[in-house]
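[job 0412] stage=fold_complex status=start
inputs:
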Amino acid sequence: MTTDAALPPAVSQQFPSATPRPSLDCPAFNVPADGALALLQYLRDTQGYDFLMDVTAIDWSAEVSPRFTVVWHLYSSTKHTYVRIAADCASDAEPAMPTATGLWAGADWHERETYDMFGIKFTGHPDLRRILMWDAYPYFPLRKEFPLAGLPTEMSDADINAEIGVGVISAPMAGGPFVATPGEPMSAAEPRAKDEAWNEKHEKPE
Amino acid sequence: MVAASPEVTYNSKIEGDITVTRVDAAINWLRTNSMWPMPMGLACCAIELMATASSRFDIARFGAEVMRFSPRQSDCMIVAGTVTYKMAPVVRRIYDQMAAPKWVIAMGACASSGGMYRSYATLQGVDRIIPVDVYVSGCPPRPEALLDALMKLQAKVRGEPALKKQFSAA
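[job 0412] stage=fold_complex status=done
writing structure:
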């Protein structure tokens, strides 16, 4: 993959608040939340990064502040290079970020998904609803405190819930989940089975 | 005066021979050989379901080729794929809209048990919301496995009282 070597000096000159972000592939920048849109617009209009590949977020876990980071991936259809922008959300409890739908119409669904999974509100978004889970779903499943197996709740249709009398259950893990543990030596942090299965001997945790 | 016609009685030389049977057997024979599926294709199992319907495997040999996309006209719901919690009420509602008698085949690991999706989003087996008659293993099952499930369902229908499901809610 070719990289855009001329981009980091240009961005540093134009946006002193944008700092280089460690990256193994394409140029990447950390930027304050209120300056993110200006940088995105500069990259789109001046540097030719005309395609918004992805909008996503990172949850650094509840102990860390700032907790949420929104990440944009841009692609240039003329230079054939990528660039990554990351901005921390100011609030940990009510994370918010300005919407990029004014720059790319395609940001609409990306931001809805990020809201659905992380609960980050994109201010100015024209239609910020959940996109994958149903509207009344009470949790944000990709947050760190949310268990992989899920939490019991109601399904979306009240009629059907009354008729069948079952709701969303937490899934039996059956020997899993197969996940890595952060903050341990590499040998201990390998993805491995953490037996959270519940059965007669091992009660289901409430 | 009109004379009594000799033609009124049954004439086996003209009408052919008659067969005597039980009403259960007759009704079940009709049902098993015209079991119209409701293709509830939710994931990759639906591709195998399509293969089962097409010429190499030809589910028409068993009278089940008429995929009805209206629940009013179908007898057997084939749940082919992963049932998410968002989709589950819809599946149940379509099942409720099917006219009795009705049957359900849970096709593949996901529909039977949630499969590999042990997560917050996936219903852990469609039998939590609708009664299932036949489960098919596989991920996805071969078309032969689905045909086998259909034959097992037909055998089950042949053996049950024909009017039992007619008047029951399930």
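[job 0412] summary: Strands of chain A lie at 19-20, 28-30, 51-59, 68-75, 82-88, 96-98, 121-123, 178-179, 192-193.
[job 0412] exit 0
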